[in-house]
């Protein structure tokens, strides 16, 4: 029996002892795979380090380049590609790759919540489960998946919800698309509304992320054009609300750059037609803000950043955000 071929690309691992300075990303992709000999029964794996940094050091340009590398590996015959990294930005890496890749082959992003110095380290189990998903025919055409704790989540919905729990990754509002049981991937639901963005180069298009809060007047927003930002995502209160004086500033900015309206709640979707007071979602959309739908702030920021890099104009940006990730 010929085993499927899987490529593991590491963006950063952890050391096996802490010393005095805490854990650091020094293990290579090959090191990670070597620690899980059971993988050899599932797939023929080649592993290498693509980057070797804490996940908070990654930039969007790294992910654009990573997407090219994944396409190259699939073109060379890989049945699936697995990306390993620190968990802090897994949801952003996965969503960016989901936007940049239009592949049938499974692409899985994974990591570990318990580093190798701790009892019950989950890295080896997550790596094995991810390879099992990446080699499953049921995982084809699902977009990029995040696999940890034996669960598989669609990149468009997954969020890190706890600082330490191995069950930190959750998907709202859908739940996981499937799970691993007895070494096999079980697909429970197939996500809809997949979208991709073609980015011709690495031209920078900085997008700010602003979170509304009680009593804040938004004065920092006035500085964004001077600082070189080309777009803004607002994590508004509740269903898409800000104070009236913040709304005035956002209206001014929306004349200069795309301003996307998300919610800071992390679940649900931005309202469109419910509240009508100054600073409500109806008022803000009327002032030129673009509703983010079900996307949270970090994911809306990635989508807007990639669209700006692609050269999309305001009309095109509105059309992309208008397309739902759920069926109506």
CATH superfamily of the largest domain: L-asparaginase, N-terminal domain
Structural class: alpha/beta
State the helical fraction.
Answer: 25-40%
Order of strands across the biggest sheet?
2-1-3-4-5-6-9-10
Globally, the shape reads: elongated
Elements, N to C (H/E):
EHEHEHEHEEEEEEEEHEHEHH
Question: Please, how many helices?
Answer: 8
How much strand? Answer: 15-25%
CATH class division of the largest domain: Alpha Beta
**Which spans have pLDDT < 50 for at least 5 consecutive residues?**
none
Taking the sheet with the most strands, its summary is: 8 strands, mixed
CATH fold naming of the largest domain: Rossmann fold
* Count of domains: 2
Mean pLDDT, rounded to whole units? 93
Quick gist of this model?
With 328 residues, the chain is α/β, with parallel strands linked by helices. 26% of the residues lie in helices and 19% in strands.
Lay out the secondary structure.
Layout: E1 5-10, H1 29-34, E2 44-49, H2 60-75, E3 80-84, H3 90-100, E4 107-110, H4 123-134, E5 144-148, E6 151-154, E7 158-160, E8 169-171, E9 178-181, E10 184-187, E11 207-211, E12 231-236, H5 244-254, E13 259-263, H6 281-286, E14 290-291, H7 297-309, H8 314-322
Parallel strand pairs: 1-2, 1-3, 3-4, 4-5, 11-12, 12-13, 13-14
Antiparallel strand pairs: 5-6, 6-9, 7-8, 9-10
Helix pairs in contact: 2-3, 3-7
Family: Belongs to the asparaginase 1 family.
Protein name: Asparaginase
Binding site for substrate: 55, 87-88
